[in-house]
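Sulfate permease, SulP family, pasting as requested.
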Amino acid sequence: MMSLPAVLRTRPSWLPPRVLRTEALAGLVVALALIPEAISFSIIAGVDPRVGLFASFTMAVTLAFAGGRPAMISGATGAIALVVAPVAQQHGVEYLVATVVLGGVMQALLGALGVARLMRFLPRSVMVGFVNALAILIFTAQLPYLTDVSWKVYALAAVGLGIMVGLPRLTKAIPAPLVAIVVVTGIAVTAGIPVPTVGDQGQLPDSLPVLGIPAVPMTFETLRIIAPFALALALVGLMESLMTAKLVDGLTDTHSNKTRVSWGQGVANIVTGFFGGMGGCAMIGQTMINVKSGARTRLSTFLAGALLLVLVLALGDVVALIPMAALVAVMVMVAVGTFDWHSIHPKTLRRMPKSETTVMLATVAVTVFTHNLAIGVVVGVVVALVLFAHRVAHLVSVDSVLDPDGSTKIYRVTGQLFFASSNDLVFQFDYANDPANVVIDLSEAHVWDASTVASLDAITTKYRERGTEVSISGMNEPSEQRHAALAGNLGGHH
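Structure tokens follow.
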């Protein structure tokens, strides 16, 4: 009997009936939302829709076990489709799946090496920009389904939006997106309304994916072709997955293992490649649908993949009847829910430092322009670093005081000394008019890099050329160690 409490403690968190129902319904909604996305991303990559659908199935199921962030959804994504499209177009599908396998291996290695720890260097303003850009991209991805179409498409989309806005006010027992999809499909089918459907997007698979090794020559030439694309896939996939995991952590007030998120994503891509999928990464839109539907465990991730396969294999004819208008309505609501409206409120913009707003807008602009979240995030981080360095560089001050007897002058340096702030340091001293002894007091400063040590070397050299005795005092231990190791050893001309 003593072991009973331990058994109860280790039972799955999704086992209670209420949680089980929430997870299953959320998984179903996500599965339905995955289908048109996987098909459209397959078209972007220039491959058969089945390649995208199989990727979404294998990724979700693999990550339900290997992933580090419960309730996060991974599948075929637009970012990965853009990365692998040139391989598929120039060399064929076999080279594409070989790229996916190699990209997965690289992701797993990067994950094991702890690349996830770099996430701490992402400023909040970049995160906000990432989220806002994502919302804009999710919304703009729906526009092709809303242009040059009959008014009936708009009417059905409006019905779907109305259900998703109104139903949660009455009950949250059933996910509103699922009800919207069922009702809109019911109206379109019973009334015989001719509108674009999921079936119009491409042929759905009628058989299970088959395990196999990519049929490419195992040569250095093959590696030369696929390695650059594999590396791009690995980096883009990791960045999107880690950003999405961080976003879900914030939404659910829980912490996830980012190292496991990284190598789990790699394992998922390896499995996907061997099953002939196009590869992928975390899907922010579907993850938001899942989390907003109340899902919190790995079961919803597993069911999203499993139900996706069941839907397209067993119920392909029924799924094919779903109007695109219903799925567009779901994704529009996801975009609205994803956007951080608080970040563009006039009151927030007035209070926020201009540098923070600049970083956020730069991230959004570059991401939307390139349609690549990875590029947007990198540019956002670079802008943030430049603005931060510029701001900190101005916090360095040099004050001087002359001893009463006039024989010694003390310069007190205050602030953080690094490449941006120490470049002008050499011009803060009065070499020609100073007395025979000069003391540089660094007790209120910190030496961060070789640039600062080189500047201090230049200052002491200039004084000694004039016969002035100069000493540096007050350095803290890390600064002293750095100075002792580098002073006089950096070369260059002063």
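Note for the archive: The radius of gyration is 29 Å.
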